[in-house]
Amino acid sequence: MKRVLQIIGGMNRAGAETMLMNIYRTIDHSQVQFDFVIYRKERQDYEDEIEALGGRVLRISAKNPVRMTYEIRKILKSEGPYIAIHSHTLLNNAFAMLAALGLNVVRISHSHNTQSVVNESIIYRVYESITKLLIRIFSQKWLACGELAGYYLFGKAFVKRGKIIVLIQKDLQRLILMLFQLLGSSMG
After folding, report:
1. DSSP letter, residue 91
2. Residue 122 to residue 4: CA distance in whole angstroms
3. Is pTM, for the whole model, over 0.70?
């Protein structure tokens, strides 16, 4: 069985979380399992279902990027082996991609948003630019829930060159097949 490490803020009922659960419910769990790294201490809405399907919810408490990268890397090494890391945490995708460098893991960044929190400070703008650059450089696969989400996280040029796979949630079967193709697996 192959394992994929999903990096997401939490697993309560919301957009990206529900999309992930729709995929997770549909896959053949004898072929592929998901583990979920979350940043929340409290029990999450989907946690019982994840565990019933054979997945694990792994918590990290890091807020700073260095510690976050370290904790994700530690999970990749101690809880795996994983065939892929699939990050859904917008600018923090950069740290998940860095955590997986040098490991035999496919690095997937997924953009679900068309913007980040509006913050006009120069420090935030520098942080945003650096993390977007790291994501473009260190990801191996780039997914977006629509062109605008791709434009925001990866840049228009990246989208126009066809580097990004645009996924639409309403076409769940197509989305699942594309993810499995990215991972070099079959649905079973």
Report:
1. G
2. 36
3. yes
